[in-house]
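Many introductory courses stop at the sequence. We go one step further.
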Amino acid sequence: MGRRLGRPVRPGGQSTLQTGETPMRAIMTVLAAAAATGLAALPAPADEATTDKATALCTQRDLQFQFAFKFRASFPQAKAAQALHRDGVAQCDSGNPEAGAAALAEALRKINVEPAGP
């Protein structure tokens, strides 16, 4: 395709815009078609990133707890920490990684371990 005055042209010199159609109207037509087909309803990438980070925190804190608990099982808060750990893992597995990561962080604090991550 060649170009003439900044507009795409077909071979033979015809403009790709319909007769009388302005470039802005062509853009609006494409955007309206995208919205009508549901392309505008795609999930926001930021939400997915947040969930992915929380899921990674669940895994990281679970492994951190399993390792640390071996050496801290005799701590006064060990049973409470185990219960929080089980609850946190259950929340992570049931699709609520934000709450699960928070519960796992609290379980780690009960046995005097600084949780991994932010």
